[in-house]
Design a protein that fits this description.
The chain is mostly beta strands and 150 residues long. The protein has two helices and eight strands, in the order βββαβββββα. The protein has a single domain, classed as Thrombin, subunit H. The chain is 13% helix and 39% strand. Strands 1-2-3-8-7-6 form a six-stranded antiparallel beta barrel. Strands 4-5 form a two-stranded antiparallel ribbon. About 11% of the residues have low confidence.
Length: 150
């Protein structure tokens, strides 16, 4: 049995989040909000159930033409079919800390687990460039959802 290399304990937290795909420089959004569900959360990362397809309203305002590339997250624009996330893709995750209060954290895709017959797949993310306020917000979410004091 392999040793778990995670820095922090994972908590089985099923919650609705919103994610956005960012360009690698973390400055330009490539998508609007995509609704996703968590499977588990820790202080250093999150596992999300990411959809294989999502409605993207960004195409009409896409910056791809500025950078001379097509959208690599769509197979066919007419069908609005999106491709799987690659490792190293940067996501902005909106976490609802309290009612009406949300924080945004950046995360990097570390792994994906795709099942062909399902509409979603698991994505493992590590939080990056995270500040103390965001860590405290995640700790609050874990305490509220799991009942475990961190």
């Amino acid at each position: 049995m392999s040793k778990d290399r995670r820095k922090h304990k994972r908590y089985n937290i099923k919650a609705l989040f919103k994610g956005q795909i960012l360009r690698k420089d973390k400055k330009v959004r490539l998508t609007e909000d995509i609704p996703v569900f968590s499977k588990d959360v820790s202080l250093s990362g999150i596992r999300l159930n990411w959809p294989k397809k999502w409605e993207c309203k960004r195409c009409t305002r896409c910056l791809g033409w500025v950078f001379n590339f097509g959208c690599r997250y769509k197979k066919e624009i007419a069908q609005r079919i999106n491709r799987e996330l690659d490792q190293e893709v940067i996501l902005k995750i909106k976490i609802d800390i309290e009612k009406g209060e949300a924080q945004e954290v950046l995360a990097r895709v570390v792994w994906t687990q795709i099942k062909e017959e399902e509409d979603n797949y698991d994505v493992g993310l590590n939080f990056i460039d995270i500040d103390e306020e965001s860590i405290e917000g995640i700790r609050s979410l874990i305490e509220r959802q799991s009942g475990d004091k961190k």
